[in-house]
Amino acid sequence: MLIAKFLRKNSPFALCSSLILLTSSVFANPAHPADPTSTTSSTSHSELASQEKNKHASITIFAAGDIADCKKKTASETMAAQTAKIIGNGLAKNSDAYALTLGDNTYPIGKFEEFTDCYGPTWGQFKDRTFPSPGNHDYGVPLAAGYFNYFDAAAGPDRRGYYSKSLGQWRLLSLNSNLSGDAMRKQVEWLKEELQNHKAACTLAYWHHPVFSTGGHGNNPVMKEIWSLLNQANADLVLSGHDHHYERFTPLTAAGEIDEKNGIRSFVVGTGGASLSPMFLPKNITEFRSNEAFGVLKLQLREHDYDWEFIPVSGQSLVDKGHGSCH
To answer: 126, 49, 44: which is closest to 89 by C-alpha?
Structure first.
């Protein structure tokens, strides 16, 4: 009825103009507008941008082992205080930066008082941004009680000394090289499940006793099975301490053979503060080594690759840096 009245009262030209205006109005104001700035959707653009930023964020890691030794000096006089300055300055400038400990966090036997009185005033300044691992000196007291009491939940569940973390596109595996027997078997089984169920673009594992080293302790077979599992899973980096020097190896297979394409690149970074120690003859798998400087290894972890750089303490010099890609 309304349309019929409209047709009787208006010319064809008026009708055509009205229809054009009506059509334009409908398309200019759709029933459900796609507003790119809207924050009422289930996932806003700002949230998506934040998620994308985190996905592609560059993560900075500072790592070393063999750290706090106050047997002859106060905490502020130790080299641990000097390496802590490097890390503290780096963390202050970057909210996406963290510290890793590679075992032997305190000397001589890992008592709780050693953690509070020597580690605490040095590396303990950034305890809330530290992912630790235990060493043999931490087990100088039964069950590494000082280590687990000090780090508490940060040392992983059930006082077993191993756990995992995700940072950006990287999976970090903090493992315990001080275990044996059933405890080590449980760690191996846990790692198998971890590698199977939590695949990542890039993987970094760290523990105390190095599988390969030219330092005074030499190679340590205790973690060879774990190295093999990591190699099969295409892990990228392994960090250790124990020998008090700095050493970088060429990428290696499970058998310790050079494989630039599929091998694991590993570092010994026992330069966190305890006295540096002698090295044996270099091996053909050694790419760089030195026992002439205290310092920390700095890693820049990106979505598909990484950079490494050794940062010596103030007044000392040691240059080793490079770039690698994830498998």
So the answer is: 126
Q: What is the pLDDT of residue 45?
A: 52
**pLDDT per position as a tens digit, 144-155:** 999 999 999 999
Cα(72)–Cα(63) distance, rounded to whole angstroms?
24
**Distance in angstroms (rounded) separating the CA atoms of residues 172 and 194:** 11
Closest CA to 246 of 306, 291, 214: 291
Rg of the chain over CA atoms, in angstroms? 28
Angle at which helices 181-197 and 224-232 pack, to 10 degrees?
10
Pull the structure tokens for residue 24: 């334009």
Q: Most distant CA pair in the chain: distance in Å?
A: 108
Quick check: 108 pLDDT over 80? yes
DSSP character for 258?
B
Give percent of the chain with pLDDT exceeding 90: 82
Task: Kindly tell me the number of DSSP H helices and DSSP E strands found in the chain.
Answer: 8, 15
Nearest to 262 by CA among 324, 316, 169, 315: 324
Distance CA 131, CA 308 (A): 18
Topology of the domain comprising 60-325: Purple Acid Phosphatase; chain A, domain 2 (3.60.21)
Dig out the tokens for 226 from the structure: 């774990």
Average pLDDT over residues 169-196: 98
- Token pair 């790692």 is found at 191
- 166 contacts 200 by C-beta, under 8 angstroms: yes
pLDDT digits (tens, 9 = 90+) for 291-325: 999 999 999 999 999 999 999 999 999 999 999 99
